[in-house]
Structures
1.
Amino acid sequence: MASQSAPRPTPGSIEHFDVLIVGAGVSGMYGLYHFRQMGLSVRVYDGASDVGGTWWYNRYPGARVDGPGSPYYCYTFTDELMKEWDWEETQSEQSAVLAYLEHFADRFDLRRDIRFETWVKGASWDEATQRWTLETSTGERATGRYLICAVGALSTTNLPDIPGIEDFAGETYHTGSWPHHPVSFEGKRVAVIGTGSSGIQAIPEIAKTADRVYVLQRTAQYAFPAGNRPLTAEDRAEARASWETIRAKMYAHPGGFPADPNSRIAMEETPEQRDALYEKLWQRGSFRFFLESYADVAVSEEANASMANFVKRKIREIVRDPKTADKLMPNHFVMTKRPILENGYFEAFNRDNVTLIDLREDPIERFTRTGVVTRSGEKPIDMLVLATGFDAISGSMLRLDPKGRGGVPLKERWKERFHNHLGLMIHGYPNLFMIHGPGSPGVFYNMPLGAERQMGWIGDVIRHMQTRQLGAIEPMKASEDAWGAEVSALANATLFPRTDSWWTGANVPGKPRYFSAYLGGSIYYHRLAETASKDYPGFVFEPDCESKK
Ligand code: NA7
């Protein structure tokens, strides 16, 4: 596929574009389509050898889309994609999501403007020309008036710092950068570190053929039945027939889901009513558990306990060994870590070849060439699977580390907090836009739809600037402060900041600790529209340097 990508320039040359995009995942691909439609010249860079971003990298066994599921984890800008693409299951596996994205690339001939296998190593703003310059791993360079960072909210892997880990001589894989060659677990002793979405999806699959699986659990998790099922011809016909209504619902819903906003209050119902509802939703599975249960679970401790206790009872019912079930009991507020859907995770602990190690009582001391040593002794292993997550939301922006006005690196600007306005722009970094970055609904929103809506806003900014001969836009410092206060006020009204999670940055040592996603749901998009309709209050513009000459 990479052969279809943008041809390489002659060595040492520099190319010039209207828009530069870093990342050819769900967001960057849509950005390319959108800005191209506006008549702009666009170049996209990606380190991978083809499109897909997250879906190109996360090939671990059991990887599936959750959230809105298929077919609603999708682009909505054209009816054609909905009409011509047949999803097989409600929670399609990674290869099917990737196939959809490849189809999008083929359908709109995207690859000719994407340079694959090219890491962007540096990005710097030039005040005189009002342009960004990108330096890449292949030595080629490009400038652009606008820089779109579609770098992924969950793409910079988090690797644990455990003594001796580099000495382990067996196979080692991180779920977020899974190899493209087939990985066999047949007859192997496998240690899995991490029980977030990735670990919980992978463990039952690995256990099917491995000789032994050691699940090294730092935090016990709530997980809900995925309820994955094949989509029938009738399902597909119905989704297509009511697509207009469904799309309107997605736009109106706080998370971009095809559902009505939840209004039931748990504490207004009896315990029996609550349990009956939880049971019904548990049997059906999917994110509907959150969408169709109660609106106050993330804000009321009592409501939260009602759901948490229900799930704990379910875990005890499924897991036969009471000691193992004890270790699997979560002790944080339910939903305050990223909700997880599972396909046989708790059942896996009923297999003879799966051993749960609770790291809180039996911590990892070190790795050797042939095994992992916990306080209780050494476990010989052939393979280590790191399902240890990501430096989420802000990590990939910091890895890119653009240099803004005065050459200030973002790492310096974001030392204490990920300052930004509207989750899109940063003071001191003109014409740079983030997709799904800190301060945006990002990871709390249906990602393809969120990308479309943010890219749409950026396109409007560009049009506004073009028609007025403006060369640079950036938010005022005061707007950033006000936006940051709003992000924190919304979060602090919920239980979310009271749990350690990747949402709060707690999973990465040294990372600023605060809840950085915008929890206002669809209010966010009203705020974006309002800002555009009022000609961008809170931002300052500079005239185009060309028009000053
Ligand atoms: P997560 O949700 O961040 O999970 C990572 C897991 O790894 C989690 O259980 C962590 O425990 C654990 N972890 C991380 N570092 C360590 C160390 N040093 N020692 C032991 N355990 C550790 O990442 P995922 O990839 O599962 O999910 C991200 C996805 O969420 C994303 O791809 C979307 O699909 C949804 P902790 O809970 O921090 O104690």
2.
Amino acid sequence: MAGTSEGPAIGIDLGTTYSCVAVWHRDRIQIIPNDQGHRITPSCVAFNETEHLVGDAAVNVLAMNPANTIFGAKRLIGRRFSDPLVQTDVKHWPFKVICGAHDKPIIVVTSKGQKKNCTAEQVSSMVLTKMKKIAEDFLGVPVKNAVITVPAYFNDSQKRATRIAGCISGLNVLRIIVEPTAAAVAYGLDNMFSSSEEKNVLIFDLGGGTFDVSILTMEKTTFKVKSIAGDTHLGGEDFDDRMVNHFVKEFERKHGKVVSDNPRALGRLRTACERAKRNLSFMSHTTVAIDCFYDGVDFESKITQAKFEELNMDLFKECIGHVEKCLNDADMDKTSIHDVVLVGGSTRIPKVQELLKDFFNGKELCKSIHPDEAIAYGAAVQAANLTGQGNPEIQDLVLWDVTPLSLGISTLDDNMSVVVPRNTIIPTKKERGFTTSSDDQTSVTFRVFEGERPKTSDNILLDKFVLSGIPPAPRGVASINVYFDIDVNGILTVSAKDKASGNENQITISNVTGILSKEEIDRMLEEAERFKLEDEELKTKMDAKNSLERYIYGTRATILSKKLPDSKARILEDEIKSAIKWLDEQKVIEVDVFEKKRKDLESIWNPIISKF
Ligand code: ADP
Ligand code: MG
């Protein structure tokens, strides 16, 4: 565990669409604004000719450079390329994703004029580096320690990959915690440390592209996730899509032009629709206007809140269906839920709130925590707790998670033999006995799966290992114990021991194994370091250019303020103009060239100016 001496520890909500960072500072949790003053930062990375941009800066170039602007890396992290969800996503993304070694998705971009292959871990690490930098700028000291949140449905491989992204960004990941727990912590701190009775809380998290419902029980400062449900493809972007389609149809009908195959026009329309959607959370109607939308024709149309609701009603109702499922899984009735907590930007939609309130028989929803910030807030509380910072309430905090899916071993006939059932509270250690399936079998391959289906071929293969040296015996005689050990981070170790020989083997799942090899991670670390150096170098270059620019304009201001004879002023003004032209024409930025130019100009201009 990290101590206070190691400096501040931050909490990062690494979202699919937006990320948010918070820290315990000056006796309270503070959400840290980015360089634009925004309290959330788009989880977006753009590559261009000179550098890579992260956050708001990356979103700004999305329309110009869609093939090299990466968003939604969280959808890829820790997944295989052949995963059906990945297959659906890659078909819709404007950037290229290919299948790399070990079925790993690889994002292909053009960076600084060259093709570059990136993993989702690398892209996420760039977002994390940005969040780290935002915190460092705010606190004025280097930040090493962080708690990072992930969705409750993330499996072992996704959690490990997120941890790797943290490592690449130079963070010491104290713990990975799940988002609903983090939100509950934030909520708990705000609302209930005074009360001692047990409470059931439903967290309703509707974000940009995902919807997660979770039921937690909170007793004083202890939180347990009881059940989770949701949809990895349901959120704000779907509501935007519906509005885009509505307007495209309207435009095509009115003007007899086909817009649906023009990505640039659609991109602009989508941005306008997202803005309109936000407005409709607070206004009964709004206007969407785009100059020169398509083929020289402007776009202008109105949309009411009622129309927006009609366009999305089936999706909103789906959300309520998932709430019911979550209650069923937890074996709870809706009346046993004490509080319903709203998290995620899309919960600002009034109709969503109304449907949810109706479902809970008119119960008031908890909106006291900011839906965009609750998760980062809770992560920062946990970070402070783990580093011995914060107040006594924070120090008392205990968090419990559950396994989102069942974990087990493949047995004869491809059957899934569950060792750790779904929704088991972690940390946990479970044991099960196995045996050999043929006579004189001396080794057994254990394949570890995650999922709810009875056939392992329908579940997710996490890893496999071999236990050998089993003394020959008829089938069914050998007695092999298999242990599943899940630590506080939700990271799994599976081991097997043969009773007769005492032979043991296990899958050591550390931070640096899994789908990525040690070499791959080292390469990513090295690249991240190089990026850092390149960024610093670029900053030095830009500083040299800015300094020269300031000198030139400063000289012009001095000439104006001093009473130089007209003839001299005119000559100097011409020289200034040509210096500005020279500056504009420099395509390649070289510190030496700019410094030399500045010296040259100084040696000519300063003696003239100093005479007056
Ligand atoms: P994620 O957790 O997926 O990163 P967020 O929880 O930050 O995402 O939610 C982002 C989504 O919230 C976006 O789709 C955005 O359009 C939507 N959103 C933000 N503000 C509003 C609002 N006022 N009304 C409706 N939707 C909103
Ligand atoms: Mg979120």
